[in-house]
Specification:
Helices cover 36% and strands 21% of the residues. By secondary structure, the protein is of the alpha+beta class. The chain has a domain at 2-51 and 59-75 and 238-379: T-fold (Roll). An eight-stranded antiparallel β-sheet has the order 1-2-6-7-10-13-14-15, with helices on both faces. Helix 2 (79-100) runs antiparallel to helix 7 (217-231). Mean pLDDT is 85; it is low at 1-50 and 269-274.
């Protein structure tokens, strides 16, 4: 028994360190790949030898909004132009983080937390951006057959509190009881969220219900910001918000048409983006690449990983996959799809995705094998099918 406990502890310590590094490593990997400075390639990011437009690659990376590392990459003619791009994006990420926050209220705005705090009390007047987001969430509840449920907050809060309380160096953390979860699940009907577009109000009719935007907030915000940057005249940039990547236009600092985005190997030894830690790469332009995986937020109990993606039917995490990566033009849609697919067995998930226009996926199954859609095979740098 001691050997088993020590083994689980070692696994947990390694996974915890891996978790801390992953958020940074994925962003670094994306930065390097998107700028076409792949490890060992010898490419020069600032070289203008193959740049007929005199564009150069600039980047900034910071930790803060949406609880993750944000990486902003721009291929611009001047550093001042990039600074304008980056400052606008950083400001909008702060605004949208505050708007979608379910844990904290902020002066001067009614946000998702305000709606939760007024559950069963009174409707909350909200702005267009939050109303648009909530309507998007309700739409995708229907499209995913309830797999992604914005009204699932009462159950997700229980799991969130257990993750927060967990000791990252322990293999004996407490998991929620079935009774506690089932009681919370009595308050997750999508019908409790009442949206009134004419009055611009949102109301949770059940005082014990809560909304949670975690399955789509980063992707939805990333998509919104990228769209705004395009309207401001920026035409060659990439943004990585944790596992959510969106690229716009060609990477103009290099003479090629696509950006290269790495797909992290969940079992890789995370470093500063070494090639052996990448299971594959995709060539993309004007597309989003979003990954959901067990390694992003989790704790361990009894040697078993309990990640943050909770199945509305079982009320527990599913273990079909280690990670799912989705490619689609819309980052918010990508975010929803990657979450939904993590909760569906392969047959169900592949059939579901076949009904979504312009969506492709890369599944890393729990046994380490890989499955892909035909469209994904076409953009993989390896060109190898896992299906």
């Amino acid at each position: 028994m001691k050997i088993r406990q020590q083994h689980a502890l070692n696994i947990n310590r390694g996974l915890y360190c891996k978790f801390i590094a992953l958020m940074v490593a994925f962003a670094i990997l994306t930065l390097l790949s998107a700028c076409l400075v792949l490890p060992g390639s010898g490419s020069d990011v600032d070289s203008t030898e193959d740049d007929p437009n005199d564009h150069k690659a600039y980047s900034v990376q910071y930790l803060g909004t949406f609880d993750t590392v944000i990486t902003i990459i721009g291929h611009t003619k001047t550093e001042e132009e990039f600074d304008r791009l980056a400052e606008y994006a950083k400001g909008r990420f702060r605004e949208l983080n505050d708007l979608y926050d379910i844990y904290n209220e902020y002066d001067g705005i009614n946000n998702a937390c305000t709606i939760n705090e007024n559950a069963g009390k009174s409707p909350v007047v909200i702005g267009d951006e939050l109303m648009d987001m909530l309507e998007f969430a309700v739409e995708w509840y229907d499209k995913t057959n309830g797999k992604v449920n914005v009204a699932f907050g009462s159950v997700l809060k229980i799991w969130h509190d257990h993750r927060d309380a967990a000791d990252p160096l322990s293999a004996d953390n407490e998991i929620p009881s079935i009774a506690e979860l089932e009681k919370a699940a009595e308050h997750v009907s999508i019908d409790i969220l009442e949206l009134d577009r004419k009055k611009m109000t949102a109301y949770i009719s059940d005082p014990l219900a809560r909304i949670d935007l975690g399955a789509m907030a980063k992707g939805y915000a990333t998509e919104l910001i990228c769209d705004e940057l395009e309207k401001r005249g920026h035409d060659s940039f990439a943004i990585s918000a944790g596992g959510n990547v969106k690229v716009v236009g060609k990477p103009l600092a290099k003479s090629r048409d696509e950006w290269i985005i790495g797909i992290q190997d969940p079992e890789g030894q995370v470093s500063s983006g070494a090639n052996e830690d990448v299971i594959d790469k995709v060539l993309v332009r004007d597309l989003s690449v979003v990954t959901s995986g067990w390694y992003q937020r989790f704790f361990i109990s009894g040697g078993k990983i309990y990640h943050h993606i909770i199945d509305p039917q079982t009320l527990f995490p599913q273990d079909h996959y280690k990670a799912v990566t989705v490619v689609h033009p819309d980052s918010g849609v990508c975010d929803v799809l990657s979450t939904a697919l993590m909760l569906m067995p392969w047959d169900e998930g592949s059939a579901f995705l076949a009904g979504i226009t312009d969506a492709d996926a890369y599944w890393i199954l729990s046994d380490g094998s890989v499955k892909t859609t035909a469209g994904m095979d076409l953009i993989l740098l390896s060109g190898e099918s896992g299906s």
